[in-house]
């Protein structure tokens, strides 16, 4: 399969030791996870925490979002980053996504705010070898650079489903989102692939806001619920998970939002669906 032109260019840039900027606002060909359905042989995977951060791709010159937008960062933050591409997440800690998103969106970066941000990297795009080999190379790279805000994501191994589930429970209890399982023997690929699986106590999905249901009682004068439609055409009301601020200024009709749910009914409706946030399209 022929690689995406951007990926090819980045690979040559990495091999030649040069930095090649990406075109602005072009969706990047990154690896995206499938959902783990309880059937994976966990012994074949390296496992890490699923970070609730902002996906960021280092192209050798700039940090970019998955949609290709340049992230404005203080010069010191990336001054010693390598020429080779990196893939990871900007992160401030569990439960800090909204504050992080505000920092990342600023066109004029605030030094004091960026001192709280780390770039946690989990992949060396277009590098040869298996993921196990790339993960080791990534740890060696970050150790050599010795930048406190540039770190390789910790990878674990589990010999049984029981051990994996215990780790998931531990992460969720501590306020984390879940786990990511990456095939240890996988070559570097892009697009949505089952070489990378996400495992969460809750599932998440996306839907488009198609209407607003007025609130009643204590929510009179505010939003009561969002009417949403999934890409598959399933429509339902989403009232749980909305903050008072969300109800005063709800996502406009046409907004793509993320919601969480436990499982699907026989009719394809999400059980115990809860609003999470607008999808991050930085």
UniProtKB/TrEMBL annotation:
Q: Which UniProt keywords apply?
A: DNA damage, DNA repair, DNA replication, Ligase, Signal
Presence of keyword DNA damage: yes
Which interval of the chain is the signal sequence?
1-24
The keyword Cell inner membrane belongs to this UniProt entry's keyword annotation? no
Q: Which Gene3D superfamilies match?
A: 3.30.1490.70, DNA ligase/mRNA capping enzyme, Nucleic acid-binding proteins
InterPro entries per record: DNA_ligase_OB (IPR029319), NA-bd_OB-fold (IPR012340), NAD_dep_DNA_ligaseB (IPR050326)
Any one GO BP annotation for this protein: DNA replication
User: What is the designated name of this protein?
Assistant: DNA ligase (ATP)
Q: Which GO terms describe its molecular function?
A: ligase activity
